[in-house]
Amino acid sequence: MIISSRSIRVYDVIAGSSLEAVSASAGTLNRPHPSPDDRWLAFRSNPPEELSGKSFVVPLKPGQPIAAESLAAIEDRVGSGRPAGWSLDSRTVYLLLDTDGFRCLWGQRIDASGRLDGTPTPVRHFHSADWAALSTSFGNPITVDGFMYATMKSRGNIWSLMRR
Question: What is d(CA 47, CA 8) in angstroms, rounded to the nearest whole number?
Answer without folding.
Answer: 15
